[in-house]
Structures are given as C-alpha cells and as structure tokens.
Amino acid sequence: MSNPSEAVPATIWIEASSEQSMAVDGPDAKSWLNGMLSCDVKKVSTGRGVYGLALSKTGKIQTDCNVIATSSGVVFSVAADISLFNYFDQHLIMEDAELEQQTDVCWIQLHGPQALKIAAAVASAHSLPWGAIDWMGKGGVALLCPTAKLPELRDSLAAEGAGALSAAEWASLRLEYGFPKFGVDYSAKDNPHEASLDRRAVSWDKGCYIGQEVVCMQDMRGKVKRRLVSASLEGSELPAQDTEVVDTAANAAVGKVTSSSYSVTRECVLVMLSLRASVSRDAALEISGRRAQILWEPATAGDSS
C-alpha cells in the first residue's frame, strides 16, 4: 500500500452522526455477527474493535460497519440512509442472541497517534463502550455515546487534547489517506475490491460469512475492472461528482470523480477517483483540463493491509 508521507499531526475527532447503531446481545452474539460481516468479529473485546462490511450473497456491499464490544455482546454501526435491520434480523434464526436497533446514540471517531490514550481516559470517565479501529493506518478509536451526553463528551475530548474536525476537514483527511465513504465513493453496486476495501475491511483467515465465496474468487482471479484511488488536483475549484477523468497519453476516459475537498495543508484539491484498474500510478491524468496525480492506491490482491 502506498500512503502519503504526512502523518496525522495530532489526535482529532469527528462525530460520525450519519451512522445508525445496532446491538447484539447474548452468548452467540459474536459468532453470529462474525458470519454476517467480512471482518473478524471474534477479535472484538474491550478496547479493541474492527472495521468491516456487510455483503450480499453476490458480494456487493450493503454497508460498512464499525464493531465494538459491550458488557453483554457487541454493537455495530450501519449507514443511516438505508434500513438494514430486517436484513440482519432475518438471518438470526437459531442463535442465542438478540438484535435491536439503538436510538439516541452517536458514534465518535478519533484519529491520530494519541487516539488510544485519549479514548481510554474519556471512555472510562463516562462509562462508554469503545474500541481501537485503525481506519487509516495512523491510529484510531471508535466510541459510542448517548446523544444526551454529547456536550460533556465534547468537553472531555477537548480537555484531553483532541480537536474537532469540520466536515470539510474530515473529507480532506480521509481523501488524503484513501479512505472511501459509503454512499458517496461507493455503493451497493460495488464489491470490496472495487471500493478498495479488500485489504482494509476483509479478514482473509476467518471462517465463512455471507458473500465470502464471491469475494475470495474475485481475489484469486485478480480481475478487478475498477478501483478507488485518491489524487491531488491542480487549482482550488472542486470538480463535480461524476466528472470524467481522462488519461491524456491514451486520449481516453478512464474513470470519474466520486468526491473532492480542498486541502489547506497541501494547498490543492484532493479527489477520490473511480478508475479502471489498469491505470498506473504515474498515468498522465486530467480532470476538466487540470492535472491530477495519484496519491494513494490500494494494495494488490494477495498483499496484507
């Protein structure tokens, strides 16, 4: 995997308020959810979480999920713009587990080298479930907070040295590290390889899960038609979503823009691109006549994350 040279400068936090929450309680909670998601849920414990995907039988992404432990089971996030409770509930048959939707809660993400230390202190002070999840390779933690406690949690995070990010700042950070957003950069039409999440959100040594056969076959064949990459773009104007990406050497359209944000740190526009998998890292790319340079690209099949 190729990453930008800049490290996350300090621990920062965002409110992932676009996510819903579901809890699974009971003796079979972990083993059941492990069969539903691409990540290894059995590794989840107090202070340790995982990031994964819920897939259809054909290997298409239904949502991405953050999973952390509770005192009686596990809790996980799902995308807010789709209703997935029935999807999960219909697969809960003989297991000794109970699934319920959670309301009035908010998922919090911390990113940076001090995320673990800060999260441990804040979670302990407020009795919150939490787990380390390193989404971008620079340290990270997910916490779940009752909405009513959010103001005092903000104060606690600030007191511990965690600064809040605006939506635009978060977009710049995730684009710089090639972290795609469900419903923006990829959707239920995509599989893990096309979303460049096959090395970030898929466990390759766990047991069976829904969609596993298709995902494994895709990996063995290595024939991915398209992939997501992040890139820098000259200028300051943000390109519209779905703007065409052109390979000037081949004089051909090779992809499209999925999201963009202006980076104050880099003094340029950062974009997420859905490109043909055959496009090389040093390809001469242009977007509306402006030069684009790939910053991050996914690991190849067979590599570990």
How would you characterize this protein structure?
With 305 residues, the chain is α+β, with helices and mostly antiparallel strands. The protein has 2 domains: 12-159, Gyrase A, domain 2 (2-Layer Sandwich); 166-190 and 225-299, Aminomethyltransferase beta-barrel domains (Elongation Factor Tu (Ef-tu), domain 3), CATH 2.40.30.110. It is built from 6 helices and 17 strands. The protein has helices spanning 29-34, 85-89, 115-126, 150-159, 167-176, 212-221, and strands at 12-15, 19-25, 47-48, 50-55, 61-69, 73-79, 98-102, 105-111, 130-132, 140-146, 163-164, 226-233, 244-247, 252-263, 268-276, 285-287, 290-296. The strands form 3 sheets. It has a 6-stranded mixed sheet with strand order 3-9-10-8-1-11, with helices on one face. It has a 6-stranded antiparallel β-barrel with strand order 12-15-14-13-16-17. It has a 5-stranded antiparallel sheet with strand order 4-5-6-2-7. Strand 14 and strand 15 (268-276) form a beta hairpin. The longest helix is centred in the middle third of the chain and has 12 residues, at 115-126. It is globular and about 60 Å long.
